[in-house]
Amino acid sequence: MKTEFIQRCIKGITQAIIEHENDIESLDRAIGDGDHYINLKRGCLAINSMANDFNLMPPSDVFKKIGMKLLSTIGGASGPLFASFFLELSKSLENDGDDRDGFTKGFASGVRAIMTRGKSDFGEKTMLDVLIPISELLNNRVDGDIFDVATQIDRKANEAMLATKDLLPTKGRSAGLGDRALGHIDPGAKSCQVMISAVCQEILKAKK
Amino acid sequence: MKKFINEVDDFILESLSGLAQAHPNLVSVNLDPMYVIRKDIANKKVVLISGGGSGHEPLHSGFVGHGMLDIACPGHVFTSPTPDQMISALEAYQPEKGVLFIVKNYSGDVMNFEMAAEMSSYENKSLIINDDAAVINSSYTTGKRGVAGTVIIEKVLGSLAETGANLDQCLSLGQRVNNASSTMGIALTSCTVPAAGKPTFDIGDDEVEVGVGIHGEPGRRREKIKKANLMVDDMIDVILADLKEKNVKTNSSEILLLVNGYAGTPLSELYLLFDVAAKNLKTHNIKIARSLVGNYTTALDMAGASLTLCVLDDDIKNHWDAPVLTPALRWGM
Fold it and tell me: Which residue in B has a C-alpha nearest to residue A173's C-alpha?
């Protein structure tokens, strides 16, 4: 993994989040407190404005900077969750290297950090319902063709996001709503899918 | 929306700046990152640090001072503060005898304080407050919410920390007071978050939200408004059931009764609630030994009030009576 690729992803993710303002916000108004989009956008813009400082840094340092910045800008519950992911990813890359194998391990450690921080697991109508299947797919296809894997991840993230619609919330923003949250996609799962898809598009651009 | 505001983004900054200028002898305010610390730094005792979303004033910033909090970290309106605030404030304060994080049970608050606790280089413990009897899970919480009982806990622990008690003793008394306290609230109107510009929820002229949270989040049920004594009866029933569930004996006990306004209800109504509650508690053979009436844990401009019963023992009573000198709570000095 190269820092230049991370910088392109930062731009891609920010753009994708802004393009999906209406989707994310309407979902969060339905079963959350309506501030997920604005908090995420604030975090993305903060990372964007520091992206040029990353030029000479290795990916592990970049992800550490990203984690710390998200921690102080997003706030709420999302801030610590995203920050835990990036800080753990950074630590893992530092120990295991930042090649594809290292990133796969790092992604898995990041997802585990979110599970620990949020005391949550798969199937509870949260961002983890997208992140856990993606982490597994990355791990299973660690030797697969990168473009094939990117296409599969994009598709899988979308399926997993849509599947949160029928889940009963037991953790996270809509836990207090119980049955009333059925039929709504989880906004955190949606925003994760949007970000993952943006990264996949960056990978696939190299093929074109 | 009709509020005293210049720019929405400056709302909390200007409010904190005002607090600092109004109480120059009691608190110092830092605006980036935001924190409020005691003017007469007392870092040789256990340092008590709390915080949470703004909009609940005087909680927590108004309770910084002798006999209560050392540090308060306010977030944006109804949004938890972030760990960099706690870390910077602690660095400015230089605790020498450990740090107790006092955290109301909201997912965002819990996670942000948890990360601050992990990142902090000082010995620390965390106390999670969940005195609300109304609901188990809400739009902001897993488990019960932390509400007006926080004021009692911060006051009592502030006094204990002044005596030189250690970190474990502070945590242990905090847990005891939390368990012995139970709160139930009712909203008459919604509140309006400045950045949103419109009321958080719709409520009819003749309706009340029973068990409302301090962000205007839903409680147990929506119903038609009734006479005050009937509403107080409902609230006390819920509180007594909650205390019973927590194995706290109330019959023939002495209690502290806190009638807390959400900021949109006049004191005359709060005292009326006290009168009604006192009559009710008498029938349950409960003695009001201490009391506090006023706007202490508010929800911006929401009309409504909560009742908190804290069952007292000699320890809690003595620490409640001990001198306190903060912008919003002051006696004995």
Answer: B139
Residues of chain B scoring pLDDT < 70: 137-141
pLDDT at A173: 74
Task: Check pLDDT > 90 for residue A154.
Answer: yes
pLDDT (tens digit per residue) in A69-94: 999 998 888 999 999 999 999 999 99
Strand ordering across the sheet containing B99-104: B27-31, B34-38, B71-77, B47-54, B99-104, B124-129
The answer to whether residue A32 scores a pLDDT higher than 90 is no
Q: What is the DSSP letter of B255?
A: E
The stretch A104-132 carries a mean pLDDT of 96
pLDDT, residue A35, reads 80
Handedness of CA A162, A167, A171, A176 (dihedral sign): positive
Partner residue facing A71 (CB), from B76, B83, B138:
B83
Residues whose CB falls within 8 Å of the CB of residue A158, separated by 6 or more in sequence, listed in order: A193, A197
Size of interface A-B (CB pairs under 8 A): 65
Selected for mutation to probe chain A from B139, B141, B212 (highest A CB count within 10 Å) is B139
Q: Answer whether CATH 3.30.43.10 is correct for domain B10-180.
A: no
Full residue range of the structural domain in which residue A98 is found: 3-205
Closest residue on chain A to B145 (Cα): A176
How far apart, in Å, are the Cα atoms of A86 and each of A48, A79, B328?
15, 11, 40
Placement of tokens 């938890």 in the chain: B80
- Check if A177 contacts B (Cβ < 8 Å): yes
Of B75, B84, B135, the CB nearest to A71: B84
Q: Do B10-180 and B181-323 have matching folds?
A: no
Tell me whether residues B111 and A72 touch, CB distance under 8 A.
no
B60 catalytic? Reply is no
Closest CA to B292 of B127, B84, B148: B148
Of A163, A174, A127, residue with least CA distance to A28: A174
**Residue B89 near residue B49, CB atoms below 8 Å:** yes
Count up the domains in chain A and report the number: 1
Which tokens hold the place of A165?
A: 């619609």
For B181-323, CATH number? 3.30.1180.20
Of A204, A178, A195, the C-alpha closest to A81 is A195
Query: Residues 57 to 76 of A: which have CB under 8 A from any B CB?
Result: 71-73, 75-76
